[in-house]
């Protein structure tokens, strides 16, 4: 019968016998799936696993530290952090189009990750053979795959590596749904903030700035987002909402009156949504006093923001993210 204990035990066994004395690499995104997959494989093979975290500079406040410190402390995992912020900022310079931004971020991410992989292989020798991925059951069904225990299939060649080197995939979460993944993560002792984390898009805050992405704008959005998250958590609303994107309308300016006079700043959009699977969503009816506190704090504490607006569009027609 199904218990998190059984799942962990079974996977640890399977991964151990599969990997033997070889080595594995796992990319961490800051999200639940990759964190739990990595923690499981770490439990099975310990220091034969190396994790890679690409810091693209588009994360929210505290998220990179959460991976670097809290995740490492909880698991003892060997972690390689690549600080690629400047590279991403350079690549995004002058770009406002959402699809263009997504393409650039995706492309740079793969390049940086593959570079890190090549470095690990150069350091560790050719025994690195496995790539860990946090694929869940719904992803497997979607792509028409089976339900192997520690499924193995060949992975495309990775740039910068010898032609004939193929990674085999370890996907220890292939039989699990999201809520089960969270339970396994909890059982493995991962921090609550990681296990209960709401969805966050791969391109990060890069697609929550309407307009060009710059360091200044990212810092501003990080401050506003941190306030919104703090107040939602304090109000006990984290479990009630699916997620709450906070968006900076950098290309829009609005007139305000703050302190000694007139300001000409930017609006921040709050996009709290309720959803089952993100395919459809409804805007969350948050309590007015919570919305009021968020608005007051953001306009008081975040320079250059003089207006907070609430997105009351369902999906469809509006997507959850603005870009
Ligand atoms: P949309 O905006 O399409 O978002 O309604 C649906 C869900 O997917 C997340 N999202 C992404 N997640 N990479 C991701 O990993 C992406 O490029 C991406 N775009 C959107 C979004 O946060 C929401 O949960």
Automatic annotation (TrEMBL):
- What EC number(s) is this enzyme filed under? 6.3.5.2
- The keyword Ligase appears for this protein: yes
- Record pathway: Purine metabolism; GMP biosynthesis; GMP from XMP (L-Gln route): step 1/1
Q: Which reaction does it catalyse?
A: XMP + L-glutamine + ATP + H2O = GMP + L-glutamate + AMP + diphosphate + 2 H(+)
Tell me the residue numbers annotated for binding ATP.
Answer: 29-35
Say if the entry is tagged with keyword Nucleotide-binding.
yes
**Keywords on record:** ATP-binding, Glutamine amidotransferase, GMP biosynthesis, Ligase, Nucleotide-binding, Purine biosynthesis
- Domain GMPS ATP-PPase per the UniProt entry, residue ranges: 2-197
GO MF terms held by the record:
GMP synthase (glutamine-hydrolyzing) activity
- How does the annotation summarize its subunit structure? Homodimer.
**Reported function:** Catalyzes the synthesis of GMP from XMP.
What is the name of the protein in this document? GMP synthase [glutamine-hydrolyzing]
**Source gene?**
guaA
**Which span of the entire protein is present here?**
204 to 526 of 526
